[in-house]
Structures are given as structure tokens and as C-alpha cells.
Give the backbone structure.
Amino acid sequence: MNWLITGGCGFIGRNLIKMLINRNPEDSIRVIDNFSVGTPDDLDYATDNYREETIKQADWSAKEIQVIQGDILDENLAIEVSSGADVIVHLAANTGVGPSVENPRMDCVTNVIGTFNYLEAARRNKIKRFVFASSGAPIGECNPPIHEELACHPVSPYGASKMAGEGYCSSYARTFGVGTVALRFGNVYGPGSTHKSSVVAKFIRQALNGETLEIYGDGSQTRDFIFTEDLILAILAGATTEGVGGEVFQIATNRETTVLEVTDLLVKCLREKGVDSFDVIHGEKRLGDVMRNFSDTSKAKELLKWEPGVELKEGLLSTVEWFMKK
């Protein structure tokens, strides 16, 4: 298969590339990334068999992973770079509630227009499958667990932009026959999260630097934390399972964990490894945050034949060990 991965130098992209290589070395992989977060050097986490290319040099028969610098807002580049692909995995996005609150226009343009460009490229190039990295954020405040039939009432601009992406995926599946699959990721953590700003990666980096860990509010807000390896298996299922075009799936663990609970567990993992020169404090509650968030993953289990397998303590310990080695 020919895989095009937008944002492929980022955390999830690197882990996806690593698993694709292990799964089938004959697959061709092309990355489009503007290097605003990850860089080609970050692909060393997955492989040393890559090279930077221009769009004119790109060739699906190349043995190396092709890395092309470009922005998802470039609509002509989207059509060129995706020509010949079997699957587009659209990971590139403005991520997180905080940045969307600080700059909602940037969040909208990046996430909505960027997604539209690659859906249109999939339509024009007759690409069989388009996997969209979404989130639970479109749902907003609700009584969890979140499931696919709940109405969306996003709280943050980020949630609104991801809801728009899901809407365009639905319309391109139903109007143009593009095999879109929207995966609503839980809170992803794991090895390779060098630049990730979410709670687990951020707290580990801060702890290793002897800095203070700040919990927003009292820590009673809940999330569904999913280990990266489980998430990548869900992406592969979304990209290859027949008969699921136009569907949305919750991809998480079906377990509700408070931020305070995950912090306490992470602190224990860090101290087990001899890291204890840090403090934990509580700060102001963050604008745009929902209080409760965890997912019902039964639809993914039924249609994608997927379910998570890594327990939270095991995943946190693995992540801490990776950061310490790095």
C-alpha cells in the first residue's frame, strides 16, 4: 500500500511509521509536514531509512520514506503529494484546547481548511481511504461515556474545528464516495512524545528537569488515557477494514481517570525510577476544558475488531523509561 501521512514527523506519525515498517516493509510511505513541531530528525525514533524530497522528486517506488516539507493549507500541493496514494492518514492539525482559545482563527483555518484540502485531494485522486484524526472535543460537556450518536456541542474552538472536519468527512463519504473514517482519539501518551504538550508528556519533561508540575484546577476533570501503541493499531484498522467508510469511532479505553489520579500514578512511576526533585501544585482552571470525558469504544470493537490492551500503569512506566533513556 502507498501511505500518505500528513503531520508524519509528529508524535503519532512517528509511531505509525514505526509500526508500518514492522508490519510490512514493502509498503511505501510519504510524509507531508511543515516541520512546525516535528522535524525529519525526529523520524530517527522510527527509522533511519528516510530522505527529504521535493514534490517533483517524489516517487512511490522509492525504498526510503519520503519526507516533503509543505503546509496542509497549500491546496495544489495536497493534490500533487497525494496522487498515487491508497490511504491518506490526516494527522496534521493545530492540537489542543489552549492554543485554540489563544488564537481561534488560526485553529479554524488550519484544522478546517487543511482537512478540506486533503479530502478534496482524495476525491480528485480517487483515493480509497481517508483516516481523520479527530477528538472527543466536538461533543463538549456531557454525561459520559461519549459515544458516536451523541449530539455535538463543542466548548472550545478546537472542538468546533474538529467537528467541522468530521462534518466534511461525512459529506465527502456520502456525496463523493470517499472512504472516510474519523477516529476520535482519547488522550494519547507514550514513547516518542518528545514535543507533545498534553499532561503526561509535559509532566514527565518537567519532572526530569526538576520543575513544578501544575494541575489546572482541582484535578477532578476526567480523561480517557490511551497508550500510543493501542492508538496506532486503531489507525491501521481504520485504514484497512472494509465497509466502514463514512463512520466515526471513539478510540480510547472506556475508562474514566481524573487528572489527579493520573498525576499520582505518574509521580509513583517517576519515583520508582529515582526521579523525585519536583513539586506538584494546583493552578487556575483552564478556559475551554470539559470536566468529564471518557469513551464508549464498543462500536470500534464491533466494526474495526479493535480494543486497547495496555494498562495505564504499564503505559506510564514505559513512557517514563523512554524519556529517561532519551
